[in-house]
Structures are given as C-alpha cells and as structure tokens.
Amino acid sequence: MSHALVVDLARNAIMLALLIAGPMLAVALLVGLTVSVLQAVTQIQEQTLAFVPKLVGVSAVFLLALPWVLQLLVKYTTELFRSLPSLIS
C-alpha cells in the first residue's frame, strides 16, 4: 500500500465526515449566534436558553438529513469494500 493511496483514503474519509457534519454544525452556529444576539439585547444570561434551541435545531437537521447521510455512508462503504482487493495486492 503506497503513501499516496493512504493519503487518498484519509482525504476521502475526512471529506465525507465534513460533508456529513457540515449542515448540523452550520445550524448550531446560526442558532447559537441568533440566541447570543437575543441574549445580549435582552440582557438575559440563562445558559439553558442557549443550549435548548441548538439541541432542537441540530436534532431537526439531523432527522431531515438522515436519508442523505445514510446514502452517502452506504455509497462510501460500498466503494471502499469494492476497492479492497486492489488495496491488498
């Protein structure tokens, strides 16, 4: 197994992880920013006020994106298993 092949496999795995986590992280960022601005404007410094909307938003995006995420993971795993004989030799 060459170094280029290992780097390519690692790059594909990292890109897949970023692609899967990206929408949920973006929603958490936007919800957190919005709640922080609202807390600063209203001067309410309650910690659960920042946590609960993020949890709800990320959960909603996770449930909406679940079929797409599973499709990506199945496609990646299938391609990896199909290329396994060529990786070994």
Strand and helix map with partners:
Layout: H1 3-42, H2 47-82, H3 84-88
Helix pairs in contact: 1-2
By DSSP, the count of extended strands is 0
The number of domains is: 1
Derived from helix and strand composition plus strand pairing, the structural class reads mainly alpha
Please work out how many helical segments DSSP would assign.
3
Radius of gyration: 19 Å
Principal-axes geometry comes out as: elongated
Give the CA-CA distance, first to last residue. 8 Å
**Proportion of strand residues:** under 5%
Give helix % range.
over 70%
Low-confidence stretches: none
The main sheet comes to: none
Overall pLDDT metric: 91
Order of helix and strand elements from N to C terminus: HHH
Overview of this protein structure:
This protein has helices spanning 3-42, 47-82, 84-88. It is mostly helical. It has one domain. The termini are close together.
Characteristic terms for this protein:
0% strand; 89 residues; mainly alpha
Question: Short description, anyone?
Answer:
By secondary structure, the protein is an all-alpha fold. The protein has helices spanning 3-42, 47-82, 84-88.
